[in-house]
Amino acid sequence: MKKNLFVIILFFIVTILGLYSCTKSSGFPGEAGQNGNTIISGAGIPNFSVGVKGDYFVDTIGKVLWGPKNTANWGAGLALVGPTGLPGKSTLSGAGAPATALGNNGDFYIDIAAKVLYGPKTAAGWGAGTSMIGATGATGATGATGSTGAAGTPAQVIYSPWITSPSLSRDTTIDGTCVRVRDFAAPSLSATILNQGVMITYFRVGSIGPYALPYTSDAGGATNSINCIYRQQNIIVYRHTFNTCRFNSGIAPAFPGQPVMINIPQSLEYRYVLIPGLIAGGRSANFATMSYEDVCKLFSINP
C-alpha cells in the first residue's frame, strides 16, 4: 500500500514540473516605429503646415513635385512637365503646286493632280517637285488575232407613226433666241444613232404637208421657222418668230408692228425617221433635196 502511494505522489510531482516547464513568459515591449510618409496633392505651392517631414507634394496646377519636406521647408520644386517641343512636320496635299506661304519648314506636300511630291520645305521655299509616277513602260507584245465573230443582224431604219406632242407649249430661249417648244418621246433614239446615224423629222397639219424640219413660213402673220433638237430618246420641237421676243400681247412692242410669237398648235403631227450609221447609203444620201415620198421609197417606209 505504501509503495502505491509513493508512485502516485511521484507521478503528480513529475506532471506539475512538466506543466510548469511548458509555460513561456512575455517579452519586453518594443520601441514605437516612425510614422510613414505620404504623397499629398493640391492646387498651387504647398503651405508649410501641410504634411510632415519626409512627405512629398504634387502641385496639380503648376505640375511641380515638392519634397521631401524637411524641418525648414518643402525644398525646391521639380517640374513634372518638360519644355515645349519643336513643331512637328506635316504632309500636306492639294491640287496643283503648293503656295509659298503654305506649311512650315520641314513639311512635305503632294500635288494630287499631277502626282508630284514637294519638300522638305526650307526657308527658300518648296524646291523642285519629284514625280511620283514612273516612266511609261515598254509597249507589250501584240496579242493573237481573235476568232471571227458571228454575223450581226442587219441594221434597220427606224420610223415612228404620225404622233402629236403630249407636252404643253413652253416659252424659253435657246442660244439667246426666244422660242416656243414642245417635245415628244423617241424611245429608239440611242446614243449610237445620235453620234453615227441620220435623223429626219417631218410634220403636217391635217392634210397639209408633210414638211421636213427645219421649215420656214409666214404662217400666223409673221415669218417664223420650226426646227427640232435631238436628244437621247427625246425630240424637242421649237418655233421661232423672227424679229420678236414678245411671248404674249401684254408685252409692249419694241418697235411699231413687232409681232407676238406664233404658237405651236397641239394639232401638229410629227413623224421621225432614224437611219443607223450601218445602213448602206444612209449617211451619203442628200436628204435635204429629197421629198418625203422619196425617203419613204428609199427605205421601204409606208407613207
Topology:
Elements (H helix, E strand, L loop, with lengths): L1 H21 L16 E4 L13 E4 L4 E3 L11 E2 L11 E4 L13 E4 L4 E3 L11 E2 L26 E2 L3 E2 L5 E5 L2 E9 L5 H6 L1 E8 L2 E5 L2 E3 L6 E8 L2 E8 L27 E7 L16 H7 L5
Parallel strand pairs: 1-2, 5-6
Antiparallel strand pairs: 2-3, 3-4, 6-7, 7-8, 9-18, 10-18, 11-12, 12-17, 13-14, 13-18, 15-16, 16-17
Structure summary:
The protein has helices at 2-22, 191-196, 292-298, and strands spanning 39-42, 56-59, 64-66, 78-79, 91-94, 108-111, 116-118, 130-131, 158-159, 163-164, 170-174, 177-185, 198-205, 208-212, 215-217, 224-231, 234-241, 269-275. By secondary structure, the chain is α+β, with helices and mostly antiparallel strands.
Counting structural domains, the number is 3
Query: How many strands?
Result: 18
Number of helices: 3
Rg, please? 53 Å
Described by the principal axes of the CA atoms, the overall outline is elongated
Instruction: Give the DSSP E fraction (strand runs of 2 or more residues).
Output: 25-35%
Report the span from N to C terminus.
Answer: 163 Å
Structural class: alpha+beta
Low-confidence stretches: none
Q: Can you give the helix content as a percent range?
A: 10-25%
One letter per element, helices H and strands E, the order comes to: HEEEEEEEEEEEEHEEEEEEH
